[in-house]
Amino acid sequence: MVDTNATPNPAPKATAAKKAKEPALEDKPFGEFMVEYFLPALDSALKGSGLNDIQLQFVEQSLPLLGSDATDLCWQVIGAWQQGQRQFNLYFFDHSIGGQKAFSWSTPGNAPSTLESFMIDERKVTLDLMVLYTLQRLNGQKWLSGN
């Protein structure tokens, strides 16, 4: 016996082909992330904090500290302003944003400060957090406007 009150089975919906999800900015290759995303975001944030003559570089070189081995190279973001009167360095020892990082600052005629660990408590490193932590370190030196 056929049930005439039953509703017919709906036709199966065609599943839309999903687009491949773009990788997160932080998953991009280290050099690409630093040059195309971090440096412009940091530059914008520093200019928003009142530093109009900021110069940022991303270079691989030895640590600028006394006693460091000149053959040990690491990637660094170097920021300078006030005609080089103030400078900071972010060090990336593992050639990765998720690896070990350090921070130092200096004024003319002085060696950089002691290397300070940078972002050691963050489980996930993001572009926004990297910019925020950099601004916090500079603000701690009273180097940003409004201090």
What does this structure look like?
- There is one protein chain.
- The protein is α+β, with helices and mostly antiparallel strands.
- Helices cover 22% and strands 22% of the residues.
- It is built from 2 helices and 5 strands; from the N terminus they run αβββββα.
- A 5-stranded antiparallel β-sheet has the order 1-2-3-4-5.
- A hairpin with a 4-residue loop joins strand 2 (73-81) and strand 3.
- Helix 1 packs across helix 2.
- The model has no long low-confidence stretch (mean pLDDT 83).
Secondary-structure map:
Elements: H1 30-48, E1 55-62, E2 73-81, E3 86-92, E4 101-106, E5 116-117, H2 127-140
Antiparallel strand pairs: 1-2, 2-3, 3-4, 4-5
Helix pairs in contact: 1-2
Unreliable spans: none
Radius of gyration: 24 Å
Total strands: the figure is 5
Percent of sequence in beta strands: 15-25%
The side-by-side strand order for the widest beta sheet comes to: 1-2-3-4-5
Number of helices: 2
Structural class comes to: alpha+beta
Overall pLDDT metric: 83
Main beta-sheet annotation: 5 strands, antiparallel
Order of helices and strands: HEEEEEH
Shape: globular
Fraction of residues in H or I helices: 10-25%
Give the N-to-C terminal Cα separation: 86 Å
Task: Please supply descriptive tags for the structure shown above.
single chain, 147 residues, alpha+beta, five-stranded antiparallel β-sheet, 5 strands
TL;DR of this structure?
It is built from two helices and five strands.
